[in-house]
Amino acid sequence: MKQKILTGDRPTGSLHLGHYIGSLQNRVQLQHAYDQYILVADLQALTDHFDQPEKITKYIIEVVKDYLSVGIDPNQTTIFIQSRIPEIAELTIYYLNLVTLSRLSRNPTVKHEMHQKGYHEAMPLGFLCYPISQAADITLFQSEWVPVGDDQLPMIEQTNEIVRRFNRIYGTKVLKECKAVLSKTSRLVGIDGKSKCSKSLGNAIALSDPPEMIKQKVFQMYTDPDHIKASHPGRVEGNVVFAYLDAFHSDQEAIASLKVHYRRGGLGDVAIKNILNDSLQLFLAPIREKRNCLDANMVKEILHQGTAKAAQLAKETMEMVREAMGIKFT
Ligand code: TRP
């Protein structure tokens, strides 16, 4: 039997190159050797978008198109909608008893997001508790591997703490611990060079961006602010264009000599941006073509089938969990 993988994304915006590098490319490879589940995390998306459900509904379809367009194959990967699996909510309720408020408040990713969203004193509990529902996502599908970006490591740690606690308290082994699968480059910097690329900060190149927009974003990229003249030596470290060339150019030897030239002087920012634009256009063109062949009805059918399959596994795990807890009333 193949080992299971579960991962997911909040459907709050289009997936971008950062998702590709941080996780999607891993998923495309892993789907052959593992039994892979991908959850479209609409419940989790509601924790900070509860007032915009229509946005989430729209992006459920868009995100699944992103998956399919990069090569996630619905015959190899089960793609499903989180809110259609009520066992996730049930398991979350049981897990809530096993985690303290102070432990939750220490989660660095939640802390960072809290700050970013300016919640301060008005923290919605749903948001604070999303790592617990994420633990339910992972364990309900008995997943041993979780391909994610490194910002999700605290969630994996939290999940494993819950697993150990649950198994110890209820004297069982039904829940499995999991491990993160990280990419070589797990964080891609945003075009502004300030932070990692993010849908909400608007500093990312989406997988579905049209060619002109890609070019426009490449030309907005932060380079070396002291590189005023092409003839001057330039800095490669912290230069967004080189970070993207490292991640996406197909000929890394050519990039190594390009860096030597840039450092020496005589290579302008327009030249390196043109090279990056060409390689990103080449990379994204087949993804766009594949996407153009998809329509919303095809996506809905894939979700329908994936959700039916996921529901079966959720039901089986939940029966074992209730049995372990001794709350099986029949
Ligand atoms: N927290 C993840 C994100 O923000 C999404 C997610 C929800 C997830 N449930 C998951 C990731 C389970 C991995 C496993 O992108």
Describe this entry's structure for a reader.
The protein has helices at 17-33, 42-49, 53-70, 86-96, 101-105, 108-117, 125-128, 130-140, 153-169, 211-220, 240-248, 252-264, 269-292, 296-325, and strands spanning 4-9, 35-40, 77-81, 145-147, 179-181. By secondary structure, it is mainly alpha-helical. It folds into two domains: 4-188 and 295-325, Rossmann fold (3-Layer(aba) Sandwich); 211-290, Tyrosyl-Transfer RNA Synthetase, CATH 1.10.240. A three-stranded parallel β-sheet has the order 1-2-3. The chain has a two-stranded parallel ribbon with strand order 4-5. Helix 8 (130-140) crosses helix 9 and helix 10 (211-220) runs antiparallel to helix 13 (269-292). The mean pLDDT is 95. The structure holds tryptophan. Tryptophan (TRP) binds next to strand 1 and helix 8.
Low-confidence stretches: none
Structural class: mainly alpha
Q: What's the helix-strand series?
A: EHEHHEHHHHHEHEHHHHH
Strand order of the largest sheet: 1-2-3
Give a quick account of the main beta sheet: strands, pairing sense, barrel closure: 3 strands, parallel
Helix fraction bin: 55-70%
Mean pLDDT: 95
Bound molecules: tryptophan
Number of domains: 2
Shape: elongated
**Strand residue content:** 5-15%
CATH architecture of the largest domain: 3-Layer(aba) Sandwich
What is the top-level CATH class of the largest domain? Answer: Alpha Beta
Give the terminus-to-terminus CA distance. 31 Å
**Rg (CA only):** 22 Å
CATH topology of the largest domain: Rossmann fold
The number of distinct helices, counting runs of at least 4 residues, comes to 14
Number of separate strands? 5
CATH superfamily of the largest domain: HUPs
